[in-house]
Design goal:
By secondary structure, the chain is of the alpha/beta class. Helix content is 25%, strand content 27%. The chain has three domains: 190 residues, 3-Layer(bba) Sandwich (FAD/NAD(P)-binding domain), CATH 3.50.50; 127 residues, FAD/NAD(P)-binding domain, CATH 3.50.50; 115 residues, 2-Layer Sandwich (Enolase-like, domain 1).
Length: 461
């Protein structure tokens, strides 16, 4: 007898789940219906800043699979259709066609919630004025590009200095704008410790970006034409011909909350290792993945919310395998992320100092400076590596890297070490690749590990 799988959300997690389930189950065994309120499926939101900045030429380059391609694989994708209610008791969802306004109920045997995350959009005067843009979807990206093309002025203000904020600052710089970043934090990139964030601050200033830290935006000022003309804080105004919001995202879980499904401390859905939603309301028939869930941090042992396409696609593969009759688990994350601003590479994995303190861990922290290649080889670039290790045991707790070309992806060595629960002393014996064009004799990550070993020994049991 055929079953029906309903998927809410047509991007990474949702369509990965649908596609994997289809690989395992034929259409006569499993009917798949996917609802997407937007106009695109399976696109790379992470690539939007690079499209806006001109590194990616065409919007369609960011689309992995169109609705038509999914339909060819017997996945009934219903575009511009929003699910407005989940009735878990009756195992059905209520959807609304956004063009006609008509509504209907669709029953399910199995349900996947992949509603993603919503951008933080503070309730400020002027926040909805023309010229103020978020960058969550391809439609958002196109709207921003249209504004940049039409706008005569060349002043841009980015609100927020997280990943999206710094990436959008780069994109606007590439387009010839004078860029100001207004940040409520002590330093940009709050995913780093402040001392490492300071390096990002100094580098961005050197690129010609005006950094304003410890500043709370109070309103968007508008001109006589109603368009944004400036961003105001308590004591200053920053002229703007365009304003970009890069404040971050929160899990989009209003539907799940209203259905009585369990949410975590950060507002994301709670699932088991197989990505099945916990609790009696879900009744074993609901899975969730992507930016709307919380995941286990393998280092701290705590649940956290991380909005990354890498995780979303893995969640989808796990869900699709389990829904399709196979078996897979998602054990958790170590919190690895990498980004860049122009030629500056920024990477982190594991815990920051405040994360370690919040988890009740005692630690040592060390910082070293090294180069991406042998110092005598042309193109060797400086990088700074910060490493945290647990006091007494020497277990690696986290690594942060800021530097030029060749710095960012070195964080993957630390990510593997964290996953394997290695000590910093064990790390010093890692057999990493070496040749002068690629690394000094002692790779910067191993130099940091050696210094951490010394700190652990002197820190004592």
């Amino acid at each position: 007898m055929s079953e029906r799988l309903v998927v809410i959300g047509g991007d990474a997690a949702g369509m990965s789940a649908a596609s994997q389930a289809r690989r395992l189950k034929k259409p006569e065994e499993l009917e798949i219906v996917a609802f997407e309120r937007g106009t695109f499926t399976s696109f790379s939101a992470c690539g939007i800043p690079y499209w806006v900045g001109g590194d990616v030429e065409e919007r369609d380059d960011l689309i992995a699979r169109t609705p038509e391609a999914h339909r060819e694989r017997a996945i009934d994708v219903r575009m511009r259709t929003e699910v407005v209610e989940i009735d878990a008791r009756q195992r059905r969802v209520r959807s609304r066609d956004l063009a006609s306004g008509t509504e209907e109920w669709t029953t399910y045997d199995k349900l996947v919630i992949a509603t993603g995350a919503r951008p933080v959009r503070p309730d400020l005067p002027g926040i909805d004025a023309p010229g103020v843009h978020g960058v969550q979807t391809l439609d958002d990206g196109q709207a921003l590009i249209d504004t940049l093309t039409k706008t005569k002025g060349r002043r841009a203000v980015v609100i927020g200095a997280g990943y999206i904020g710094v990436e959008m600052a780069e994109a606007l710089l590439h387009r010839g704008y004078e860029v100001t970043v207004v940040n409520r934090g002590q330093e940009p990139m709050s995913t780093l410790d402040p001392d490492m964030g300071r390096l990002v601050h100094e580098a961005m200033t050197g690129m010609g970006i005006t950094m304003v830290n410890d500043a709370e935006v109070t309103k968007i000022l508008t001109g006589d034409d109603g368009r944004a003309r400036a961003v105001a804080t308590d004591d200053r105004e920053f002229p703007a011909d365009v304003v970009v919001l890069g404040i971050g995202v929160r899990p989009e879980t209003a539907l799940a909350r209203d259905a009585g499904l369990p949410l975590g401390e950060h507002g994301g859905l709670l699932t088991d290792l197989g990505m099945r939603v916990r609790g009696p309301v879900a009744d074993g028939a609901i899975w969730a993945g992507g930016d709307c869930v919380e995941v286990l941090n393998l280092v701290s042992g705590r649940e956290q919310h991380i909005a990354l396409g890498t995780h979303a696609n893995k969640h989808g593969q796990v869900i699709g395998s389990n829904v399709g009759g196979g078996y897979a688990t998602f054990p958790g994350v170590v919190g690895t992320a990498v980004s860049k601003v122009c030629d500056l590479e920024i990477a982190r994995t594991g815990l920051r100092e405040k994360d370690a303190r919040a988890a009740g861990l005692q630690y040592v922290a060390v910082t070293i400076e090294s180069t991406s290649r042998a110092g005598y080889y042309p193109g060797a670039a400086l990088m700074t590596v910060k490493m945290l290790a647990e006091r007494r045991t020497g277990r690696l707790l986290g690594t942060q890297i800021v530097g030029r070309e060749g710095a960012g992806k070195r964080v993957d060595v630390a990510a593997v070490a964290l996953t394997a629960r290695m000590t910093v002393e064990q790390m010093t014996a890692l057999d990493l690749g070496y040749a002068p064009p690629f690394s000094p004799v002692w790779d910067p990550v191993l130099v940091a590990a050696r210094k951490a070993v010394t700190a652990v020994r002197s820190g004592g049991a």
